[in-house]
């Protein structure tokens, strides 16, 4: 059940439209950060039942057996054993802490889908510099008109004490994931019979919003630059996508370019947004499904429902362990439950309903945002009839070399097609995500550079 003390914020939301520009919180409210609230704005205390512990700082340094950047992450909680396992047979016992999406997956795969539940480890953390920026943002950040962006915030979540749904969504979009990231990973669309064809790419992201040499004044409406080169299969190899992600995409739409290796040409990709289907996902993921939710939030009216205790994937180091074979992780209908870890955590629940006259294949989205990171752990998506259609799940872990909480794998379930798409597989690669590479110069993420790299 929703907690009474979280309904205060929800009551404010009822009186305010997500489209209104709101003032930042008072210094008195912001002073709770780091005292009764975590630096992210979560509740410092555990729950009354003792099943969720107090936050004591999360993981602050890598374990001794993590040696170098790019190494697959040793599990700091490898000795933990499941407390219990939720299945279709005993689901009713735990229903109060399950989402509609999880219940739907139990019903879709009653004999195989299960949640092994472990001790709750509030491992979420970030660098002290990010905490300091979040504290500053709390008293300065403001939504722009319509809630299509924000101003006067930099280098941390803009709204750690959210006053409405749109602010909570921006906390997810603008969360910390390092400054520059390089990763080689595979995505697959798993068919009803379990068959799949891997697509491997190298991805690079420059998070300009977290450039320590920058500021809100120098951001120039650009949050990050993204580059992805396809490595295999051979029929797709050499193709690339370049994205310049703008903050206010109503003011200035996302800029995207595609490189065709066969034609050796770079072309603008103006439709890479909203519900445009992603080709590598075989129709199972839209452009704004990526990263659980991304891009402009302007097509939905967002409502902050409140806090809830639910089971979410957390500390999922086993899924990305070196040598785990994709064939062992990918089963018919869902991931291999034996490789997953679920814990009871508090989340912010945010509901987005499609605006009158707006177009999107999803009429409603419900997001479940981890209170210790603002990372969306699950998103339930509804079709035009109001029926639950797709369930997106992020298998979270702490990348302790930074540190930050991010996903090990993202999984996108289509309940109607009984297929699913997985992003982020890299356990068969020689290395995993690397945050240590030198930050490239300003010309690296230009269309001209894309063409030069594609012809090499």
Concise account of the structure shown:
With about 450 residues, the protein is α+β, with helices and mostly antiparallel strands. The chain contains seven helices and 17 strands.
What does this structure look like?
The protein has 456 residues and is of the alpha+beta class. It has one domain. Helix content is 12%, strand content 28%. The protein contains 7 helices and 17 strands. The strands form 3 sheets. It has a 13-stranded antiparallel β-sheet, with helices on both faces. Strands 1-2 form a two-stranded antiparallel ribbon. Strands 3-4 form a two-stranded antiparallel sheet. A hairpin with an 8-residue loop joins β8 and β9. The longest helix is centred in the first third of the chain and has 13 residues, at 128-140. The model is unreliable at 1-21 (pLDDT under 50).
Strand order of the largest sheet: 10-9-8-7-6-5-17-16-15-14-13-12-11
The helicity comes to 10-25%
**Average predicted local confidence, pLDDT:** 93
Which structural class do you get from the secondary structure elements? alpha+beta
User: How large a portion of the residues is in β-strands, by DSSP E?
Assistant: 25-35%
- Poorly predicted runs: 1-21
Number of strands: 17
What is the 3D shape?
globular
End-to-end distance: 57 Å
Tell me the number of helical segments per DSSP (H or I, 4 or more residues long). 7
- Please write the string of helix (H) and strand (E) elements: HHEHEHEEHEEEEEEEHEEEEEEH
């Amino acid at each position: 059940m929703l907690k009474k003390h979280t309904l205060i914020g929800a009551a404010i939301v009822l009186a305010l439209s997500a489209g209104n520009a709101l003032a930042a919180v008072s210094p008195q409210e912001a002073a709770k950060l780091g005292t009764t609230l975590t630096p992210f704005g979560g509740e410092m205390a555990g729950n009354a039942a003792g099943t969720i512990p107090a936050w004591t700082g999360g993981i602050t340094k890598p374990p001794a057996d993590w040696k170098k950047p790019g190494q697959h992450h040793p599990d700091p909680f490898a000795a933990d054993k499941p407390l219990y396992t939720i299945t279709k047979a005993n689901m009713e016992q735990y229903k109060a802490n399950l989402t509609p999406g999880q219940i739907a997956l139990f019903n879709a795969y009653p004999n195989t889908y299960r949640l092994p539940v472990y001790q709750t480890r509030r491992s979420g953390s970030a660098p002290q510099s990010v905490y300091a920026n979040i504290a500053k943002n709390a008293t300065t950040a403001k939504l722009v008109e319509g809630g299509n962006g924000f101003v006067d915030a930099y280098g941390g979540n803009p709204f750690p004490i959210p006053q409405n749904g749109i602010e909570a969504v921006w906390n997810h979009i603008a969360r910390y994931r390092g400054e520059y990231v390089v990763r080689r990973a595979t995505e697959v669309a798993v068919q009803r019979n379990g068959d799949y064809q891997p697509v491997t790419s190298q991805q690079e992201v420059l998070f300009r919003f977290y450039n320590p040499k920058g500021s809100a004044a120098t951001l120039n409406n650009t949050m990050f630059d993204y580059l992805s080169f396809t490595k295999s299969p051979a029929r797709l190899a050499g193709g690339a996508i370049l994205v310049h992600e703008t903050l206010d995409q109503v003011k200035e739409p996302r800029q995207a370019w595609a490189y065709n290796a066969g034609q050796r040409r770079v072309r603008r990709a103006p439709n890479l947004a909203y519900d445009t289907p992603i080709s590598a996902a075989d129709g199972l993921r839209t452009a704004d499904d990526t990263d659980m939710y991304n891009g402009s939030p302007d097509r939905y009216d967002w409502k902050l429902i409140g806090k809830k205790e639910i089971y979410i994937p957390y500390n999922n180091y086993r899924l990305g362990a070196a040598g785990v074979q994709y064939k062992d992780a990918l089963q018919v209908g869902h991931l291999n439950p034996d490789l997953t870890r679920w814990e009871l955590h508090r989340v912010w629940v945010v509901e987005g309903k499609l605006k009158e006259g707006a177009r999107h294949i999803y009429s409603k989205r419900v997001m479940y945002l981890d209170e210790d990171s603002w990372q969306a752990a699950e998103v339930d998506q509804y079709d035009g009839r109001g029926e639950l259609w797709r369930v997106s799940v992020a298998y979270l872990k702490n990348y302790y070399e930074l540190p930050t909480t991010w996903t090990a794998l993202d999984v996108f379930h289509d309940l109607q097609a009984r297929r699913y798409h997985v992003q982020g597989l890299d356990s068969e690669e020689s290395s995993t995500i690397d945050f240590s590479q030198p930050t490239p110069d300003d010309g690296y993420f230009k269309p001209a550079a894309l063409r030069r790299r594609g012809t090499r």
